[in-house]
Every structure is written in C-alpha cells, then in structure tokens.
Amino acid sequence: MPLFNLSNVSKPKETNYDVAIIGAGPGGLASAIYAGRAGLKTIVFEKSTEGGQILLTDMIEDYPGFVSISGNALAENFLNHAKTFGANFTNEEIIEADLVSKIKRLKTDLGNEYTAKTVVIATGSNPRKLGVPGEEEFMNRGVSYCAVCDGSFFKDKRVVVIGGGDSAVEEGLYMTKIAKEVTLIHRRDKLRAQKIAQERAFKSKMKFILDSVVTEIGGSKSVEYVMIRNLKTNEMTKYPTDGVFIYVGLIPNTQIFKDQVKTDENGFILTDEHMETNLEGVYAVGDVRKTPLRQIVTAASDGAIAVIDMTKYFD
Amino acid sequence: MAALLSEEDRKYLVDLFEKELKGEVKILFFGSKRKEECEYCDLTEQILQELAETNNKITIETHDFDETDLVKKYNIEMVPAILMLDSEGNDMRIRYYGIPSGYEFSSLIEDVIATSKKGEVDLSASTVKKLEEIKSPLKLQVFVTPTCPYCPRAVLMAHKLAMKSPNIIGEMIEANEFPDLSMQYNVSSVPHIIINEGEGEFVGALPEDAFVEQIMSVVKGV
Ligand SMILES: Cc1cc2nc3c(=O)[nH]c(=O)nc-3n(C[C@H](O)[C@H](O)[C@H](O)COP(=O)(O)OP(=O)(O)OC[C@H]3O[C@@H](n4cnc5c(N)ncnc54)[C@H](O)[C@@H]3O)c2cc1C
User: A3 vs B148: CB contact, 8 Å cut-off?
Assistant: First the structure.
C-alpha cells in the first residue's frame, strides 16, 4: 500500500461514448485497456475506488506475471494501464440503465445521464450475508466483511472467520498477524481453499472448527460470542469472540439490470461465449457473470473477449 | 527527510492542479509541539508542504493546538487537524482529523480542487433542495482507515454536503489515530458515519440519495 494513494482522483468529461464500462474492478479495467487500444471512446464508472475487490485483499499470488503483489499495487497497475490507452474515468454510481434501446442510457447518482453504443457490465459482487440473528444488529459492532479495512480494530483481540474458501482462509491468515486469536469456522469437514493457502493456515496459529455453522452472533454493546452448532452432533457451543469476519460467498451486483438482462436464479448474468448478454451490445464480465471461476485472471480474460467481440458494432 | 510523494505522483499533481485549480486555497494545519501526543503530526505537515509545492495557488499555514483563539475559532477538537479556506478566506467547513494517507489522500486532493472553486461541488438537484431544509448546525463525522477503499466516497460526500450547506461540518476521522473516540462510538467497521454526535449513525458508503436520507431523518427527528 503506497502511503499516499491517488487512484481515486478523476473528473467527468462529456456524455456520449462508444463504450460505457460499469465498474472498475479487474474485469472493467481489462475491458477499458482493450477498448482504448481498439480506438473506442470509453468511459468507466466506479462508485468507490478503482480496483474493485482486489483492494479487499492483502497479497495476491495467483495472477500470472506476479509471484506476489499487493491487491493495491495490482489495482494501480491495471488502472494506469487503462488510462495510458485513453479510457476516461468518473467516480459515479450507475443507478438506472436502459440497455434495451439501440443507444444505451445510463443515469448516475449525481443525476448525470450518459449514452453509449455498447455497455460492459463489470459490477462484480458483494459479500453474501450469513443471514443469522445478530448479524445486522452488530454490523457496526464487530461484524465485518473486509479484513484489510477493519482488521486494525481487532489488534490483540479474538476473532472468528466464517467460511472455508480462498477468501476466508487468506483473510484469516491476514488476521493472524493482527489478532490475538483467530478461529475459522466452516460447515464442511474440509476447507475448499487452494492447497497452498490451507497448508499455510494449518501451520499458522489459526484454530479450526469444522462441520459447524454459526447460528447466532450475540453480545451486549458489541460482539461477545457466536453460537456454533456442530452439524454432526447437533451440539451447541457458545464461543467467545470480539469480532466476526464473514466470507461465505458472493452476491452479484445485478439488481439494477436484472429486469432487462437474463440471469440465473442467483442473479448471475448469462452470456454467450463472447460475454454478450441476451441484449445486443450489452456484455457482462467477471464476477457478475455465470462462470465456473471468479478470479482476477478470469475477470481480465472476460474483458478482453468482450471488447474484441464488441468491435463488430463499430466496423 | 526524504520526499513522501513519489516523483511520478508529484508530476501528476502538478499537471492536475495546473488544469483544475481556479482560485487560491489556504490549508490550515494544526499540530502539536508535544510529539508524544501526536504521532502523525510531522508526517501530516510534511505531506501538506509537499502538496503546496506542486502549485503556487496552494498555501499552508501551520498552527499549534496551543493557539487557543484559532483553535476556538475553527472549533478544532484534536490534532493533527486540517481545514481549508477559499480565496476569500471562507472556511469550507471540512475537517481532517488524523493523517489523510492511503486512499484518503485522494479525498484531500478532491477537496483542494473544490476549494479552489469556492466550494463548487457536484450534487444532484434533489440533494441541494433537501439541504435547504437544514437550518441548525449538523456535524458529520466519517470514521475511516487508510486501507479502506470504500471510505473516500463517504468522506467526500460529507465534505461536499458541508461545502454546500452553511450549517454542516464534515469531518474525516482516522479511526486508528483516535482509538478513544472510535471506541466511544463503537467503530469496528468503516466507513462509519456519526451524525450530530450520536443522534444518528450508519455504516457503509451509501449512494448520494441514501446518504442524504440518513441525514434528513436525523434533521426531521424521525
Ligand atoms: C477478500 C478477497 C480476496 C481475493 N483474493 C483473490 C486472489 O488472491 N486472487 C484472485 O485471482 N482473486 C481474488 N479474489 C477475487 C477477485 O477479487 C474477484 O474475482 C475480481 O475482483 C472480480 O473482478 P470484477 O471486475 O468482476 O469485479 P469487482 O472486483 O467486484 O469490481 C466491480 C467494481 O464495480 C463497482 N460497481 C458496482 N456496481 C456499480 C455501479 N452500479 N456503478 C458504478 N460502479 C459499480 C464496484 O465498486 C467495484 O469496484 C478475492 C476476493 C476477495 C473478496
């Protein structure tokens, strides 16, 4: 993390574009690189900070070309790369979209309207809530979905991490550097994370409670415990903790599109092999898409495929 | 001391400010002579000095927390603190408590640009209308950490509202530097926004409409 980060500074310009890319995660930024190189007039909308979910992780070790790079540094590389080839950026959230018409219309939270001939939906995903009592109540009292954002509040405290995938294990490992005690709770008997991350976790001070689910988050002023049910024995345990980090899957950010674009039952957008949706000139890339793998490398790859296909509308 | 800004970032800022700055911007920095009371004062002052060197429209005025008159005038509550005045000396009603490092450095830059335009900011017509209903003082405290990518959005929203409404003060608070205050408000997940010292609160970088709704519900007492 550079001590002083400038990636967020950007200014809007005109309102008519060839390509509008919604979301500046790796999928959107890779699309912007290809669109810029194809000579298309491109704008990228980002509601928070360019980089997307890669900013939520400390180190990345599986993006080709970088044995180990911080999420922050990789995001900055992606962003600078896209800017080099001429993409425009604006910090606005798309809140309404007309994707059916030939000329697509996008409305932002600042009340601005933009048009584009083609659209790339690269809005990614958000953490799925666990959906247990106490989660909402303690949302700002010890429950978190972002270890790099909130980890420092748990210095020398006890935390539990819920989930068994890559994010849970990686972020749990990150928390072992900060917290006094880290316990990972997973509903299956084995972790799902990549082997190398699992091995590191087993060697670290992390404790594991497997075959178990959290059924409640409780406390008075802030989180004090979680209730854990063992799925094999049905035994209930009250487990003391100061923090709960939840990594139990993803919800695609497709709410504002799903009346127009076809999705699966979980809201992930359906595309053909060129990433085009059921609507002409509307593409979906990365985590929002129904895809077997949600990673940086696949989001970037989707972006490349989408934009190369899209050039057919500009010949 | 070695420069904090990389040569690349410095050049970027020189270009950006050359294009974007309209009028003068005076940045008031409040630090403390008692270093043990202010771990990040030196670093904060240095980054501001380096910022000022990128464009001659930006000036920095350094003050100490002991200067009670000024501290009172601007209602400075703790240090390091930063505020901005436009070319006519108008207080933009934005405050930074703690160092604006990491992602918050972008917020500082956006604020410098807005201040150079005398607080001209991009807000929707419906927000501007709602702000007119705010007739009594309103304080927005946005607790952040420098590593939180969602936080600048909340900080900038609070700052934009402050620039637009004469009754609003918008503060950024670096939660790690002020643990007691963070504890008082139970901050454990950022951005965490406190309205009028606890009359209202919410967590997360909400879109403009929803952010303003949260404030209006406190204003209207519902
Ligand atoms: C903790 C964690 C660790 C991870 N570690 C790794 C790893 O080590 N290696 C790896 O390959 N992958 C990792 N991933 C997965 C990877 O981050 C994602 O697969 C990837 O970021 C998906 O890219 P994307 O562009 O599809 O979406 P995202 O990265 O989610 O980006 C979407 C962007 O769109 C913006 N947005 C959403 N809606 C709107 C709107 N309406 N208007 C404007 N902007 C909008 C969002 O703010 C966001 O910035 C990790 C994920 C997490 C959560």
Answer: no
> What are the residues facing B144 on neighbouring strands?
B174
Report A:85-114 residues touching B (Cβ under 8 A).
91, 93, 95, 109-111
What distance in Å separates the CA atoms of residue B155 and residue B132, rounded to the nearest whole number?
Answer: 21
A16-126+250-314 architecture in CATH? 3-Layer(bba) Sandwich (3.50)
pLDDT digits (tens, 9 = 90+) for B40-67: 999 999 999 999 999 999 999 999 999 9
Q: Which residues are CB-contacts of B172 (< 8 A; sequence separation ≥ 6)?
A: B94, B95, B96, B97, B98, B100, B104, B107, B142, B144, B155, B158, B159
Structure token digits, residue A96: 């309404």
Q: What is the homologous superfamily of the domain A129-246 according to CATH?
A: FAD/NAD(P)-binding domain (3.50.50.60)
List the end-to-end C-alpha distance of chain A, in Å, as a whole number.
42
User: What does the alpha-carbon distance between residue B172 and residue B8 come to, in Å, rounded to a whole number?
Assistant: 27
| Interface predicted TM-score (ipTM) over 0.85 | no
CB-side exposure of A312: number of CA atoms within 13 Å?
10
User: Residue B222 — pLDDT band, cuts 50, 70, 90?
Assistant: low
Does B181 contact A at CB distance below 8 Å? no
Q: Is the CB of B103 less than 8 angstroms away from the CB of A146?
A: no
Chain A residue closest in CA terms to B51? A4
Structural domain span for residue B98 = 7-108
Secondary structure of residue A190 in the 3-state scheme = coil
Amino acid sitting at position A34: Y
* Domain segments of chain A as ranges: 16-126+250-314, 129-246
pLDDT band of residue A4 (cuts 50, 70, 90) is confident
Residue A11: predicted pLDDT: 56
Contacts of B105 in chain A (CB under 8 A): 4-6
SS (H, E, C) B40-69: CHHHHHHHHHHHHCCCCCEEEEEEECCCHH
Q: Is A163 in the pocket of ligand 1 (CB under 6 A)?
A: no
Task: Decide: residue B73, CB within 10 A, 0-12 exposed, 13-18 middle, 19+ buried.
Answer: exposed
CATH of the domain at B197: 3.40.30.10
pLDDT in tens, B11-37: 999 999 999 999 999 999 999 988 888
Structure tokens at A311: 């050039």
**Of A168, A165, A125, A145, which Cα lies nearest the Cα of A287?**
A125
Q: Do the chains contact at B189 and A152, CB–CB below 8 Å? A: no
B15 within some domain: yes
Total domains present in chain B: 2
The helix (run of H) or strand (run of E) holding residue A159 is: strand A158-162
